[in-house]
Amino acid sequence: MQKVLIANRGEIACRIIRSCHRLGLATVAVFSEADADALHVALADEAIPIGPAQARESYLDTRRVLEAATSSAADAVHPGYGFLAENTAFARAVMDAGLVWIGPHPDSIDAMGDKDRARTLATAAGVPVLPGSARFAPDAADADIARAAEAVGYPLLVKASAGGGGIGMKRVDDPAQLVPIARATQSMAEKAFGDGAVFLERYVANARHVEVQVFGFGDGHAVHLGERDCSLQRRYQKVVEESPAPGLPPAVRERMCNVAADLCRQQSYVGAGTVEFVVDADSFEFFFLEMNTRIQVEHPVTEMCTGTDLVAMQIDLARRRLEPLPQDAVRHAGHAIECRLYAENPDKRFMPSPGRLERFVMPTESDGVRVDCGVREGDEITFYYDPMIAKLICHADSREAAVERMLEALGEVTIQGVRSNVEFLMKSLGHPDFRAGRVSTGFVETHLAELTNA
Questions:
Q1: Contacts of 342 (CB under 8 A, 6+ apart)
Q2: Is 114 exposed, middle or buried (0-12, 13-18, 19+ CB in 10 A)?
Q3: Taking the mean position of all CA atoms in its chain, how far away is CA 262?
């Protein structure tokens, strides 16, 4: 492997480029018309245009991305997260073209991409799974969906089988709402994912979202690198992540991490992945949610606590330069927190706030402060893509010290030209419940009046 094409944009493309350059590998960026002057284009050794601003005609166009790899003589492709990262057909097309796919085997992507099938595999691996239903295609009968809902119990979630990142997920409290919500979700899922199937899952009222970082070596050996708490969310999407999960009993943490690694071993999983769980905040019972067969947005908190470079590990495994890592070689030290900085207006239900970054200053990086960013001052945050501006990650010896370091770092951020969620983040981290580790997926909704000016 000599040259890696990054099939992505923004901060994750910049992040991958940095690891490639540290490993002595050349990089190729791809870009849409809207990203011609983007930071990832400037950082890469080469850059290839792949089409219009609309993602479907550029970053999601497998033909154009593969043509860019061929024309640049790249010999490997890293998909990052989002876009084509969990697209089985794209992964297979890359491999069929004779290129190295820096990611899990397509069979694993296929198995875990369908949430209903993933639940079945998790059950077989001994992972606790929430009560749920089978898949319901758009032509399923209303009566069949209603019967399944009675068996699952209310409240419940209608979830798109092919969804992810909180997209395609609706809560149902009243049986009268079930079929209309199910049909609306099927329609949305068909448009967003090309698959209109949904399934039903029991809703945990006082829930935490905890996930385990795993890494498989493709030979039945896999390790975990600890867990992350991602409970602070808005619209089912994460905004603050931390490791380790505060207040999680050691026995629960150990079992959760072990069953996550077991699931990977059963699949002979290759590379980085994340097994996500919903945890009852009262009983600490945990249940399988999904597995993401890619690098996660929040992977830096794990890197800060374990001293690893997960992207470099992905690359080294793909080029067969990574020896299997024994579990006892993984060390977890201190506490790390990540905040996602978005161009959005928290006072208007977190609506995106596109525009030009007229002034943009982030804290200076140090041993305890990391900045992962895909934009510069003067760049445009467009409505075509996710409005995340940057990720700020802080690490310290204790959770209390990490929170203080993060608050100090957030206080150094300057963003002008677009609305941002910086003030919201500072209020969230300073809230007494967050300080005490009392965070659930309902934290933002519960405290919305205190966290915003809505």
A1: 239, 350, 352, 387, 388, 389, 420, 421
A2: middle
A3: 21
Task: With CA atoms as reference, report the closest residue to 215 among 100, 294, 143, 151.
Answer: 294
Backbone angles phi, psi at 413, to 5 degrees: -75, 135
Beta bridge partners of 277: 210, 288
380-398 pLDDT, tens digit per residue, is 999 999 999 999 999 999 9
User: Please, what is the end-to-end C-alpha distance for the chain in angstroms?
Assistant: 52
Evaluate the omega torsion of the peptide bond into residue 155 and state whether it is cis, within 30 degrees of 0.
Answer: yes
Residues 421-432 pLDDT 10s: 999 999 999 999
**How is domain 3-102 classified at the CATH fold level?**
Rossmann fold (3.40.50)
Which CATH code, of 3.30.1490.20, 3.40.30.10, 3.40.50.300, 3.40.50.11460, is assigned to 131-202?
Answer: 3.30.1490.20
Q: What is the pLDDT of residues 22-72, one digit of tens each?
A: 999 999 999 999 999 999 999 999 999 999 999 999 999 999 999 999 999
Task: Tell me whether the CATH fold assigned to 131-202 matches the one assigned to 207-451.
Answer: no
Rounded-to-integer distance, Cα 172 and Cα 161, Å: 17
* Residues 6+ away with beta carbon under 8 Å from 389: 341, 342, 343, 357, 360, 373, 375, 381, 415, 418, 420
List the chain domain ranges.
Answer: 3-102, 131-202, 207-451
> Active site includes 294?
yes
Measured distance CA(78)–CA(315) in Å, rounded? 8
Q: Are 65 and 7 in contact (CB under 8 A)?
A: yes
The CATH number given to 207-451 is: 3.30.470.20
Selected catalytic residue, list 234, 294, 370, 419? 294
